[in-house]
Structures are given as C-alpha cells and as structure tokens.
Amino acid sequence: MHMQTTDPSDIVVHARNVTLTLGLAAAPVHILRGIDLDIRRGESVAVLGASGSGKSSLMAVLSGLERASGGEVIIAGADFGKLDEDALAKARRGHVGIILQAFHLLPTMTALENVAVPLELAGHPQPFERAAAELAAVGLAHRLDHYPAQLSGGEQQRVAIARAMAPDPAIIFADEPTGNLDGTTSEAIAGLLFRRQSETCATLMLITHDRELAQRCDRIIQISDGHLAEQRNS
C-alpha cells in the first residue's frame, strides 16, 4: 500500500508489516495480516470494519495491550517490540490513553478517584487537582464525589474520557466509545471527545462501525480480514 510521505518526527503511530496470530501452532488464527500504517501528530483517524475484521485487535496491538506476532510497532517514539512488560507499561503510561465502550470505572471509587488514582500511581505531583480540572473540562465539576452507580451512562463515559485525557497523552485510542449510549448522548460524547482531542493536540484513533462518526475524523481506514483494505480522507 502506498504510504503518504511526511516528516518522520511528526509520526506518532508507525506500523510496518504487523501481524497477530493467536491459537496453537497446529491451528493458528491469523488476526492481523501485514498492517502498514502511519498516523501523524494531532491527526484523527477512524478505523471501520465488520465484527471480526481485526479492528479491535489492531487497536490492542498499537496501544500496547497485545503484543504483535511480527512486524514493527513504534508508538510515540517507543519501539514496542523491543520492550519487556515493565518497559512497555512505562512507555504506555502518560503517552497512551484508552477509552472503551464498557467504561471500566471502579465501582468503589468516586468519579474524582477514578481519574486521580491512576495519576497518583503514575507519580503525578498533583493527581487530585489534575483530575478535578479534567472532570470540569468534560462538564462534571458537580459530580466529583459521585460513584459510577450514581452516574448516567453518558456521565460514566465522560469520566472515562477524563481518565484517559488527564495524563495529557500523545495518543488516544477509543474503541466504540459511544456504543453503549443512546443517540443524543452519543452525539454529545462524540463532540466532547473531538473537542478535547483538538484542545490537547492529541492524536486520535477511533474504532467504530458508525460511518457518520467516522466522517468526523481527518482520515478513514477500512480493515477487512486483517488487512487495511482502504485508506481515504473523510
């Protein structure tokens, strides 16, 4: 596939011939089959594909949650293939933010604690102040002391966005971030996500099946059967 030429220092996601194979050697399952992809600093990219096409696996590999079976993955300057588990966790911390469809908030922690505690564990000097500021930025300054069960689905996803954005990461990976929300709430959350991405100059990789949502990104990539089938500007 022809790749767009650009300044190498401007590339925050660099993948070359990336493969992912799961299962036993006798019965391998080929999930990703030679992915080439560059994403520039501050760019928003949507990845479209049917269920089972490999889009969530691609996100998992690029975000460091899953190790590629082969190829090269360089994220924010770190070569993920050459790092052990500790170094990989350290490379992700502060550089990669992840937003999932299921929110994954800790039920025994308040909204403020859900955002602040990961910052505290990462050694941030003012975790609770930073968390409060990020929650205010997503419109939840009045909900800091509420637990997830006391929040609506849209509010829970706002907390999840705040948690991902709080360390000021270079890259945000969002996997169907509006999938569990109704239409009106989904639209509000999508608008918020793109606004925060623009304000922080982060790179956004959005996994979605929603073409309307994908059209809001700078670029759309189609994945099919573990291959990038199409790349085009939205």
Would you mind describing this structure in some detail?
With 234 residues, the protein is an alpha/beta fold. It has helices at residues 55-62, 85-92, 111-121, 127-137, 153-165, 183-200, 211-214, and strands spanning 11-22, 29-40, 44-48, 70-75, 78-79, 96-100, 171-175, 203-208, 219-224, 227-233. The protein contains 7 helices and 10 strands. The longest helix has 18 residues, at 183-200. The radius of gyration is 18 Å and the shape is globular. Helix 3 (111-121) runs parallel beside helix 5 (153-165) and helix 5 (153-165) packs parallel to helix 6 (183-200). Strand 9 (219-224) and strand 10 (227-233) form a beta hairpin. The chain is 31% helix and 28% strand.
